DNA sequence: CGCTGACGAGACGCTCCGTATCGCCAAGCT
DNA sequence: AGCTTGGCGATACGGAGCGTCTCGTCAGCG
């Protein structure tokens, strides 16, 4: 309904910053739209004009944060849009390296608070859940699909395996341990997951 | 602080019923303590006297529901406290059967709304999360640990495998698909998970 | 340069929160 | 059986945050 051409870029950024800061400082449940507006030096209406809920605000803020980090990491060069999983020819080593990096990332408190809050809200709010999965989760999972397909061509993964299911053998356990704190996660743990998934539980 | 001896059993049950009904009917976020009290025909203070939050109420209500279902299923006989995973000697078949039953259970709308709400709240509320994992999740996972250990004795699982990690290869993917709707789940899917986990992704 | 519409600010009615305070009545002790 | 105690349903309370609406103001487009 509003006119995007006249939208204030400054307010938009200020709202992102305020939302991320508040969620990190006082937690998602105690973060309010009124609080975000006050912190951003913005009228409430400006938030209600462009977003439907505080979850929407946080989701966009987090996506924006990701894009910024991506651009910063990329430097000046204009490279292809998405990172990829390394392919040294050794599938187990590549997967272990990526999962170790993921462990580090998940431990970064800057990412932890908002992504945990969004995951939680996505479980209960179906619409938000769809966007969360589509915009944040699936693109990452697709990288594993690609790497596993390459491994299939190299004969390191059986050809009849469905990569979209296979990746869940190591990604989902890590996600669950992180989200639900069912057990601690470490490099040793993710390494073990890769070994179990590649070579199976049964005797060979 | 209050005196449990004088506690009204009738009110307690009425509050459980009201909480479960409201969560199923209007969803967790729109369920309020005032609403539960009104529906149960109970004063608000009676809820605040015995519980700290609506999540606490729902958690106890859900646990109570589980105990009722367990007793009903058990019938008159006084059997050991917990169900177990069948052991026909065929590990793959046993796991597939249990996971198929789990799929059915997760699809039951009576369980879906409250358990999903509790899982979501547990992601953000650390204290509730601990109780949720300890009281609801871990006891179920322990059954898999037991079954996998039996399989190790029978030589169907390599002896150096850690069962607590191994079970995550098929349980976590199912949990994630259910919670986050990342992809549909079916009998074919859970069967595939068991096959991948037992025999691995790499050529044998 | 003149319009238009987003902007910051804040008032509004509303719902729900969590607390306090009523008699009332049933459980538990003597 | 009588008395005391404390949980009970009910309701009022102040406060927080919701989402809407309405002010001038002012920046950007044509």
UniProtKB/TrEMBL annotation, chains A, B:
The Swiss-Prot or TrEMBL record marks DNA binding at 32-51
The UniProt entry, under InterPro entries, shows:
Homeodomain-like_sf, HTH-type_TetR-like_transc_reg, HTH_TetR, Tet_transcr_reg_TetR-rel_C_sf, TetR_C
Q: Does the keyword Ubl conjugation apply?
A: no
- The lineage's top-level taxon is Bacteria
Transcription in keyword set: yes
Which keywords appear in this protein's UniProt record, sorted alphabetically?
A: DNA-binding, Transcription, Transcription regulation
Q: What is this protein called?
A: TetR/AcrR family transcriptional regulator
């Amino acid at each position: 309904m509003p006119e995007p051409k006249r939208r204030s870029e400054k307010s938009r950024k200020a709202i992102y910053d305020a939302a991320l800061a508040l969620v990190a400082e006082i937690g998602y449940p105690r973060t309010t739209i009124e609080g975000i507006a006050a912190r951003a030096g913005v009228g409430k209406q400006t938030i209600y004009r462009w977003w439907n809920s505080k979850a929407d605000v946080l989701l966009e803020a987090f996506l924006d944060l990701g894009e910024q980090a991506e651009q910063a990491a990329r430097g000046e060069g204009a490279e292809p849009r998405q990172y990829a999983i390394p392919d040294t020819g050794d599938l187990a080593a590549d997967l272990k390296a990526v999962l170790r990096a993921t462990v580090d990332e998940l431990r970064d408190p800057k990412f932890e608070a908002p992504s945990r809050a969004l995951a939680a809200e996505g479980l209960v709010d179906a619409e938000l859940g769809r966007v969360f999965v589509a915009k944040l989760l699936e693109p990452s999972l697709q990288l594993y699909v690609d790497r596993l397909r390459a491994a299939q061509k190299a004969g390191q993964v059986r050809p009849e395996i469905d990569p979209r299911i296979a990746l869940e053998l190591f990604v989902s356990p890590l996600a669950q341990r992180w989200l639900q704190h069912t057990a601690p996660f470490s490099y040793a743990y993710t390494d073990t997951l890769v070994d179990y998934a590649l070579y199976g539980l049964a005797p060979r």
